[in-house]
Amino acid sequence: MAARAPVATGRLMLGFRKWYYNLCGFNKLGLMRDDTIIEDADVKEALRRLPERVYNDRMFRIKRALDLSMKQQILPKEQWTKYEEDFYLTPYLEEVIRERNEKEEWMKK
């Protein structure tokens, strides 16, 4: 029974993450989680490294969300962003942070 507890906990956490993702509301405007990250120096560098098509898709989503917000509307449910389709910027951001940390460590020596 103890071996099954982590699986049940993992499933429960995934369910909680999906519930919270839908509760936040940005997906109802067609935004992804990575569209809502505050742009600091690391995020700006990660955005610079994105492929052009992914960057243009991001800008479209942000403009559409602004338009919907001004009209006080949301997208139809079939157009909402799904939890499974999210997180396009995270790998680039992790790489930028790792490089910055490595550079800081190198400068300490």
Automatic annotation (TrEMBL):
Coiled coil: none annotated. GO terms for biological process: angiogenesis; mitochondrial electron transport, ubiquinol to cytochrome c. SUPFAM superfamilies: 14 kDa protein of cytochrome bc1 complex (Ubiquinol-cytochrome c reductase). Transmembrane segments: none annotated. It is a peripheral membrane protein. Belongs to the UQCRB/QCR7 family. It comes from the Eukaryota. InterPro entries: QCR7 (IPR003197), QCR7_sf (IPR036544). Component of the ubiquinol-cytochrome c oxidoreductase (cytochrome b-c1 complex, complex III, CIII), a multisubunit enzyme composed of 11 subunits. The complex is composed of 3 respiratory subunits cytochrome b, cytochrome c1 and Rieske protein UQCRFS1, 2 core protein subunits UQCRC1/QCR1 and UQCRC2/QCR2, and 6 low-molecular weight protein subunits UQCRH/QCR6, UQCRB/QCR7, UQCRQ/QCR8, UQCR10/QCR9, UQCR11/QCR10 and subunit 9, the cleavage product of Rieske protein UQCRFS1. Component of the ubiquinol-cytochrome c oxidoreductase (cytochrome b-c1 complex, complex III, CIII), a multisubunit enzyme composed of 3 respiratory subunits cytochrome b, cytochrome c1 and Rieske protein, 2 core protein subunits, and additional low-molecular weight protein subunits. The complex exists as an obligatory dimer and forms supercomplexes (SCs) in the inner mitochondrial membrane with cytochrome c oxidase (complex IV, CIV). Component of the ubiquinol-cytochrome c oxidoreductase, a multisubunit transmembrane complex that is part of the mitochondrial electron transport chain which drives oxidative phosphorylation. This is Cytochrome b-c1 complex subunit 7. It is found in: Mitochondrion inner membrane. GO terms for cellular component: mitochondrial inner membrane; respiratory chain complex III. Keywords: Electron transport, Membrane, Mitochondrion, Mitochondrion inner membrane, Respiratory chain, Transport.
